[in-house]
Each structure stands twice: as C-alpha cells, then as structure tokens.
Design a protein that fits this description.
The protein is of the alpha+beta class. It has helices at residues 13-17, 24-33, 43-51, 70-90, 107-113, 139-147, 196-216, 229-246, 285-288, 313-324, 351-363, 377-386, 397-402, 419-427; strands spanning 55-57, 66-68, 94-95, 101-103, 122-123, 132-134, 158-167, 183-193, 221-228, 251-255, 262-270, 275-282, 292-294, 300-302, 304-312, 341-345, 368-370, 391-395, 405-409, 412-417. The strands form five sheets. It has an eight-stranded mixed sheet. A five-stranded mixed sheet has the order 17-16-18-19-20, with helices on both faces.
Length: 451
C-alpha cells in the first residue's frame, strides 16, 4: 500500500503507520485498510440518532432492521432526492425500477448471488416449489433490465441508475447500528461501454464527477485505488494523470492477481474512515450476464461495465452525524435539517403571530415550527440546540410591533430584518439542494418518538 502525492512522494508501510508529519486523515484510513485500526464504533452515534428521534431499533422485526421516525424519514428522502438529482443532472443517467424479489432458479441470479448465498433472505411463495430471494445488491435488477435492451454501439456509453433497498442476512456479530444492518438503501449507477478504451474514459469522467460531488458536500476525502498489477502496468499513464489533476494524496494498492471481476476499483473514504463512494472497472460481467450490444460489423459483443455506488443513505446519516456531533452546537447541513428555523414566542400572546411567521417561512421553502410549549424561553432555546435545530427566531411584543426579527445560530445573531429578508438569506444557495416540506408547525402537536 502506497501513498502517492502526484506520484512524486511514496510512504513506506511503517511511515503510513506513523502519522507524525504526514496526512492524518490518510494515515487513519490507511491503518484501517491495513487492519491495524478498527473503524469507529457506532454505539454513540446510534444513541445520538435515537435521541434526535431520527432512527431506532425495530423490535417487531429481526435484529439489523430499523424504523425511521418522521424526522429521520424526511432526512432519508432528502438524501435520496439528492442522489437521484446528482445521477440524473450531473452524471447524465437514466433511472430504472426493478423488483425486490427474484427467482433463485434463474441461472444469472445464482451467478450473481455467489458469495452472498449464506446471507440471502429467502421468501416463501404461494407455490411449494418456488425458490425466491430478496434482492441482495444493485446489479441484479439493472443487469436483467439491460439484457432486455436492444443496444447499438451508437448509444454507448450509456448510464443507468436505480435507487433501491437490498437485503443481506449479516451475522449478528457483524451488525453495528444502521451502518452494518440487514437492509440498506442506496443508489447504484452503471455505465455500459463498447470497448475497454471507452470504459476507461468513462471511469475517468465518473471519478472526476464523484470528487466534485464530495467537494460540494464539504467533505474531506481520501481516495483508495486497488489495481490489478498487469492492468496497472498497461494503464499507469492515465491513472497518474488522473490523480495529478487534483493533487490529492491517495492510497494505492497493486494487486498481484485479479481475484475479483473488476480490474480496478476506487473507494472514496471520508476523513473519519467511512467508505462512501466507489467505482469499479468491470471487463468480465458483460459476458457473464449476457449484456451485449450490436457493433459496427453487425455482430453482438459484450459490454464493458463501470459500477458506481453513491453510498447508502444509512452511511450518509452516519458520516454526517459523525462530522457534526463534536461541534459545541451541532446541527446537520441546512438542507438536511428536519427543522431549519424554530420560532420561540416570548409569551402566549405572541403565539398566533409566530404561527403566521412560520407559515410564511414554510411558503418560502424554509422548514419552520413554533415552540409553543409552556416552558421558559431559555429552556426552549436549549431544547432547540439539543435537537440540532440550526436557526432560531425569538419573537416578543417588540418584534410583533415593528416586524424586525433576529436570526440566531449557535447563540449568535447572524442576521436581522423582515421575514422576507430572512427567508432570502436562508435560501441563498439553497436551490442547489433538495427540498421537502415539514407540515408540523406547533411543537406541542408533534408526539415524542423513542423517548
């Protein structure tokens, strides 16, 4: 395992183990990959997710399955919206929808199941001889759909994606919160190419887009490349150029043999060591699963495939929680916060006016609620911060009379003005992010979950 910075600096394994003077995030990920450092335990993060009424264990199911409360369900859908928008708008991909249940009698499904056989969820059918399973990865439906396509070389490369849930019966000792559960929801994108050369160009373009996506999310990332030795020797030039474009230190592993179906794989880790995105260059599965195109000579030939994962929604919730929980006043990014602004009336006579403010903010695509509970203003402010609400508006007689309000964050006033002005400030740049409404307005009308 090596650490190339433009391929002009290489760390030995011993130097990688010793972070002094080196990139701490890269060394942290490197030690995890070497098996010398365990990934961060998720117990504390699950405790926080439960306390925020986002997600909880589901005792009515078997271990490894979870329920998402209203706030968590909203966050789940916002992350899903962002992934699908990114795939369609920036990656130029079309979407498909495929079944959750497949027949294990299908030879191609058996071939894909392979290493997952002991972890498949079996499904009882209405017929005694039916042998059914729940989908176990993102390839299943996509490959079956593409096999049905009449594909010409003129249409390649072609990108297609699906957002779906997959199920794996992981052993109980392997389960760890929502990160390692028995079902996970994610967006898988596949690019189909006519030749290896075309697939390599696709790989480079997709890698650049994924890194830009990570930057947009404000993530510090560590890319990790695994490359089969012969493939590396033949393709080192463009790989070096690709890494040098960003001048980002990466981890690189040269594999002596091709033990997997891919010749090259890239995983993008977060600074905390959570694997987020990945890309695989697959030169075999087009033939294995019969995904073909009609070439210029009229003959059917096998597609080369790029597998692209945007990570699971559950992983996103974990790394966004990890990234923010250490802050003195933690909150999720504004676009993802279930409640973006909490309005706190000073007295009962201000509640009706606060409701009008909240309704106006919600009409302006800002999720706002009103804490009308019979608690002190200080207690309600503390509760808002403990609930990771990023912004507050305190409204008393003076604000009601003059129509000028202070927008506070982390106990600091960040803006003052009319409600329209505050909506404009909050919405600046928000068009880049997905939005969904939050219908609840009065805090007192929303039940507490998981308490």
């Amino acid at each position: 395992m090596l650490y190339p910075s433009g391929f002009d600096k290489l760390l030995t394994l011993d130097e990688l183990r010793d972070c002094s003077g080196n990139d701490v995030a890269l060394c942290n990920v490197g030690r995890i990959l070497l098996g010398e450092k365990k990934e961060t335990q998720l117990a504390n993060y699950m405790k926080i997710l439960r306390s925020l009424e986002i997600v909880d264990y589901e005792p009515a199911s078997n271990p490894g399955n979870f329920r998402f409360y209203p706030r968590g369900a909203l966050m789940f859908l916002l992350i899903k919206d962002l992934m699908e928008s990114e795939a369609s708008s920036n990656f130029g991909s079309l979407s498909v929808l495929t079944p959750m249940i497949y027949s294990y009698e299908n030879a191609a499904i058996q071939g894909q199941a392979g290493q997952f056989y002991d972890r498949l969820y079996k499904v009882y059918g209405s017929e005694p001889d039916e042998n059914l399973i729940l989908r176990f990865n993102g390839d299943v439906g996509c490959f079956e759909a593409m096999k049905a396509g009449i594909i010409s070389h003129r249409q390649l490369p072609f990108r297609v994606h699906e957002f779906a849930t997959s199920f794996r019966y992981n052993m109980s000792g392997e389960l760890s919160g929502i990160r390692r559960a028995r079902n996970f929801s994610f967006l898988d994108l596949h690019s189909f190419s006519a030749t290896q050369a075309q697939a390599i160009l696709e790989y480079q373009d997709i890698y650049r887009k994924q890194m830009l996506f990570a930057e947009r999310l404000g993530l510090r990332t560590v890319p990790f490349f695994r490359v089969q030795r012969d493939f590396y020797r033949e393709n080192k030039s463009w790989l070096v150029d690709l890494i040098r474009e960003r001048q980002t230190p990466v981890l690189l592993e040269i594999m002596p043999d091709q033990s997997q179906y891919w010749a090259m794989k890239n995983v993008v880790f977060t600074e905390a060591g959570v694997p987020l995105f990945h890309i695989q260059l697959d030169l075999e599965n087009g033939q294995r699963y019969g995904i073909k195109f009609v070439d210029t000579d009229g003959l059917k030939k096998n597609c080369a495939i790029i597998h692209v994962s945007f990570g699971s929604v559950e992983e996103w919730m974990v790394f966004l929680t990890m990234a923010n929980m250490k802050n003195p006043y933690p909150s999720y990014p504004l676009w993802l916060s279930p409640i973006q602004v909490r309005i706190i009336p000073v007295s009962a006579r201000n509640v009706l006016h606060c409701l009008r403010i909240a309704q106006k903010m919600n009409s302006g695509k800002i999720r706002a609620d009103v804490d009308d509970r019979q608690k002190t203003v200080g207690a309600r402010i503390r509760n808002a911060f403990e609930s990771w609400v990023p912004y507050l508006v305190i409204c008393g007689d003076e604000e009601t009379k003059y129509g000028i309000y202070k927008l506070s964050s982390k106990n600091e006033v960040v803006a003052a003005g009319s409600i329209d002005e505050l909506i404009g400030i909050l919405n600046e740049g928000n068009e880049k992010w997905p939005y969904r409404p939050w219908p609840g307005v009065l805090v007192s009308k929303i039940p507490a979950f998981g308490k």
